[in-house]
Specification:
single chain, 496 residues, 22 strands, 28% helix, 29% strand
Length: 496
């Protein structure tokens, strides 16, 4: 009987011990699950993340931007700032960064014959040479027909051809969709039909962050096509915000009034070829477009990126512009004017706005039909800033005859200049062949065809005095050195 009682007692003890162990395990599991959920919530790992930089809302593309963080969120994240390792950031962001290669035909002076023949009676010959450049870009969206890539304007400026190389090494031709020279921004497009399915699987659209949330001292990562060797990665910190290339720092009030480019200063290495690449925060979001670096023996570690939040609206506008290809002289439209660049000296001396001063308006031309008058100053062409005659000529090469373009001008009203607009239907360049012959003759004679810059868009029928006058490239020197210039100067002094 005692043996039976002892056995029952042993069974009860074993069962009690088993229940105790099970209870402890359940408690431990609950604590672990709670801790895991708490860490996830603290780091934001269980929160949905933005993976696309642009969405196609009907017919208009817009950037998808992350929301600005509140002060409470900033405080709660101070100990866990940046949830990704640099290698994780690179793995996630690299497919959205591309390499851009440009080719430009430039005219150079050939001095070979000068040394060959001793220089006596020899005029240097003009030759064309193809120059290749490199830069970077960020995939910021796509629509039904094109993949859209943001870069710097100076990367694609004056380029005759563009090609974009993706992370898998495949390259496609691209065209400039739109640009803003003042902000140093451009958007290029690649037809989706030209991109293979394998490449589409390999690339991704960048995630756009909020550059306003950056703090000085915060770590950042730069990705770009340094020196044209292919994509590479550098790291650094945010050295300063609200910078200008002249070293000045803008206050919040200045930012609202200033129309310049707001830059992020960083010590991450930004070398030639990095322009147009991505500056990323530690969440892998694009917070800047790498743009420039101060190069000097006295400067170390000063790179700059355009703050992405400040230019988001501009990028959206550029994304929705129609892509344009550069046209031959005989195929592009003309305004029907002769113009000159207004230099800084003229602006300071006479208060004339910066732009293209209209010297002559061709009778029966597109400009005259639109109401553009002599002595007006063209400042914008189709919404793009025009500062020099070269700017206007370059823009016209992308527009066909018959297109209606809005031209913004500064015109005099007796007391000063006021802004006016005109809608111009571009005319045909009927003198393209004649101009080409003149250029060929100029090259054979070793003369600089650009000494007289009044021939701005091919509209002038007679430019025979171009080789006789030793004019410079801006309006101020023309006024000082020519009879026509003195007449114009007197005109302005009369109403002043």
């Amino acid at each position: 009987m005692k043996n039976r009682d002892n056995k029952n007692e042993q069974v009860r003890k074993i069962a009690k011990k088993g229940l105790t162990i099970s209870l402890c395990a359940a408690l431990a599991g609950g604590v672990a699950a709670g801790a895991f959920e708490g860490v996830n919530r603290l780091n934001g790992w269980n929160q949905p993340s933005t993976v696309e930089a642009a969405v196609n809302n009907g017919t208009e593309l817009t950037l998808t931007k992350s929301e600005s963080k509140s002060d409470d969120e900033d405080k709660s994240e101070t100990t866990v700032k940046g949830s990704l390792d640099v290698s994780d950031i690179v793995e996630e962001a690299m497919p959205s960064v591309v390499s851009i290669t440009t080719k430009t035909v430039q005219e150079i002076q050939d001095y070979y014959g000068f040394f060959q023949y001793g220089g006596y009676g020899y005029a240097p010959q003009q030759q064309e040479q193809e120059v290749e450049g490199s830069g970077s870009g960020i995939i910021i969206g796509k629509n039904d027909d094109y993949l859209l890539i943001a870069t710097n304007y100076h990367v694609v400026e004056d380029a005759d051809t563009l090609s974009v190389s993706f992370i898998d090494g495949n390259a496609c031709e691209a065209t400039v969709r739109g640009f803003d020279e003042d902000k140093d921004l451009a958007v290029v497009s690649v037809p989706l039909d030209d991109i293979s399915d394998d490449t589409m699987d390999a690339i991704s659209i960048a995630s756009i962050g909020n550059s306003d949330d950056l703090k000085v001292g915060e770590q950042v990562v730069a990705i770009g096509n340094a020196l044209g060797y292919g994509q590479s990665v550098t790291t650094g910190i945010v050295s300063a915000k609200n910078r200008r290339l002249d070293g000045s720092v803008l206050s919040e009030e200045d930012l609202e009034e200033d129309d310049g480019v707001n830059l992020i200063q960083t010590d991450a290495a930004i070398n030639p070829g990095n322009s147009g690449g991505a500056l990323l925060n530690m969440d892998g979001e694009v917070v800047g477009i790498n743009s420039a670096k101060l190069a000097s023996t006295e400067v170390e570690g000063m790179g700059y990126a355009i703050a992405i939040t400040d230019v988001a609206d501009i990028l959206e506008n550029l994304m929705n512009e129609e892509p344009r290809e550069k046209l031959e002289d005989a195929d592009h439209g003309i305004l029907g004017i002769q113009g000159r660049s207004v230099s800084d000296d003229v602006t300071e001396a006479y208060g004339i706005p910066e732009g293209v001063f209209v010297v002559e308006v061709t009778e029966g031309g597109a400009a005259e039909d639109a109401g553009i008058k002599k002595n007006s100053v063209i400042t914008y062409f189709d919404g793009k800033r025009v500062r020099t005659i070269e700017d206007l000529v370059d823009l016209l090469t992308y527009y066909e005859p018959g297109e209606e373009i809005e031209v913004t001008m500064e015109v005099m009203d007796g007391e000063g200049y006021k802004e006016a607009t005109a809608t111009v239907t571009l005319g045909e360049n009927t003198n393209a062949d004649e101009q080409e012959d003149k250029r060929d003759d100029s090259k054979d004679d070793g003369k600089d065809e650009n000494k007289d810059d009044r021939q701005d868009d091919g509209s002038s029928e007679d430019n025979s005095d171009a080789d006789e006058e030793e004019d410079s490239d801006n309006l101020f020197d023309d006024w000082e050195n020519s009879e026509e210039g003195r007449d114009i100067r007197e005109f302005f002094e009369q109403w002043q």
